[in-house]
Design a protein that fits this description.
two-stranded antiparallel ribbon; elongated; 7 strands; 6 helices
């Protein structure tokens, strides 16, 4: 089932009991928290979600979300496209203590008591998939490595006198 989910709030328990599946796209511009980290807001995020129940009869969400986003390289300050991909394996939990007992392959989703916006889940997962320091691949970046260091700086470092040379002279004079 493909649906427009931008503002729709859904009941996870009902979707899980039905074993529902949702897939579709969301405009990047509709993901305002994600857009804050991007250069532009063009394009769409794709998603596919399957709802179910785990062995303890808690609602689960499994699936993926992906998007091609434009970021600013922190090495050369040029723009580049990063393909974000996030796998979702969430279990609805009532308390933080319950989340600590989950199997390691699942992430907790704290129950707020009401319906949630699926788009918020997709946005959260894409934000988590952002690189910590956005950078081109080394061969694509114009400002990588030692070649980006100004020539004058390297020469100045080699011409500078060793600060411990004075101590060496004093030691030789005492001998």
């Amino acid at each position: 089932m493909s649906r427009e989910l931008r503002s729709e709030q859904l009941d996870l328990r009902r979707l899980a009991a039905q074993g529902a599946e949702l897939s579709g796209t969301v405009p990047i511009a509709a993901l305002s928290r994600l857009v804050e980290s991007l250069v532009g807001s063009d394009g769409e995020a794709e998603y596919e979600l399957r709802f179910g129940l785990d062995q303890a009869r808690r609602p689960t969400i499994e699936g993926w979300a992906s998007a091609a986003v434009e970021l600013c390289c922190q090495r050369c300050l040029g723009n580049y496209v990063e393909n974000l991909s996030a796998d979702l394996r969430l279990v609805l939990v009532q308390t933080e203590a319950e989340s600590e007992r989950l199997a390691p392959e699942f992430d907790p989703l704290l129950d707020t008591g009401g319906p949630i916006r699926i788009v918020d889940l997709i946005e959260d997962e894409l934000i988590l998939a952002l690189p910590i320091i956005p950078m081109h691949e080394s061969e694509d970046c114009g400002g990588s490595g030692a070649e980006a260091e100004p020539e004058g700086r390297a020469e100045a470092q080699t011409e500078r006198e060793n600060p411990f040379a004075v101590l060496a002279k004093l030691k030789r004079n005492d001998d």
